[in-house]
Amino acid sequence: QNLAWVRKLALHIDEVQERLNGVGCRLAGEVNQRLRDVARVEEVQAQAALRQHVVGNLNHEQKTWFASLKEPVLESEVDRVEERIIGQVFPGGLRSQKAKPRR
To answer: For a tag on the chain, would you pick the N or C end, based on fewer CB atoms within 10 A?
Structure first.
């Protein structure tokens, strides 16, 4: 009677052990996947930081090399600005002003 009970108990223990082994394998796979994910995230962040550094250096070099160059000004823009200034100083325009004798 005791021997049958021990055998039955051993079968239940083996069944529980198999289940625990399966759970352990799944957990180990999940932990390994998370470690790979963390390593990949760190690699991507390192590459992004390197790209950002390179782009920042290029931007800085470009500003350093071309800092003295000014934007080209179109003659039509200059003409419009001159006309606006002349219009503010001489409301009727330059041609409407008669030469006044100096004293």
So the answer is: C
Q: What is the end-to-end Cα distance of the chain in Å, rounded?
A: 141
pTM (global) more than 0.85: no
3-state secondary structure of 62: helix
- Are 86 and 93 spatial neighbours (Cβ–Cβ below 8 Å)? yes
Per the CB < 8 A criterion, the answer to whether 1 and 8 are in contact is no
Question: Which pLDDT value is given to residue 9?
Answer: 94
Instruction: Give the mean pLDDT of 1-19.
Output: 93
Alpha carbon distance 49, 57 (integer Å):
12
| Chain centroid to CA 5 | 67
The rounded distance, in Å, linking the Cα atoms of 44 and 46 is 5
Q: Tell me how far apart the alpha carbons of residues 56 and 63 are, in angstroms, rounded to a whole number.
A: 11
Whose structure tokens read 């390179």? 54
- What value does the mean pLDDT take over residues 63-77? 61
